[in-house]
Amino acid sequence: MNHALPPLREIIARHGLAASKALGQNFLFDEKLLDRIAAIPGALAGEHVYEVGPGPGGLTRALLRAGANVVAVERDRRCLPALEELSEAFPGQLRVIEGDALKIDPFAEIGAPFHVVSNLPYNVGTALAVGWLGGDSWRPPWKSLTLMFQREVADRIVSVPGSSAYGRLAILAQWRSHAAIAMSVHRSAFTPPPKVMSAVVHITPKDAPDGVKMSVLEKLTGAAFGQRRKMLRQSLKGVEGAIDALQKAGIAEDRRPETVTLDEWCALAREVG
Fold it and tell me: Which residue has the higher pLDDT, 191 or 20?
């Protein structure tokens, strides 16, 4: 039944779907590229997948073809008829929720461990990723995150100490997860082409270091990278116990935050408590 689906461009033309700048939409039509993205998390047959911003359903098709059970959240009502066609072509595999992904708890909707695979809308992508990576309870309900970002954001997520891209986002993504760029995507692959290049980041959870609270780590990195040109003694003086903690963790007060490694941030957070 699903092999009879018309090409994506035809679906978009038929439903009069132009990408909305206000919603941060850029559509991908290349089915081979979409299949490659859907393959990044590994075999998806029978797996639960959560997708944000499916638009006309290009990536959704690839996920359904791979055998996934997909819950997709779409706030653009114009796209719902196209997604309904997909739902009919893959009976029982796709559920579409009309709504704002920032207000939806995927675990409450799915009720089982799941993969997140999304070509994230540019304007909410970072906020959603931070939400999935945050929280004091760990491991999370997701098995992996396969997320398309602007290249600059992707570089920040996988960056290392000492680089200009290294900051809160890298620490948040890496202190209890593995994060890597799985593939680059040229701007010309999208309609309309964005001004910047994109990349797909693949993130998998690992055990969190003992005695480190996410809330403390967020407070420390927020203060330090909020004034990233200042030395730690200056930027952390507003965080109670942080200056003493620097000494106990053996971190020199005259260092700047981008030189502090993940292990050192964790040691600092452990001392602050």
Answer: 191
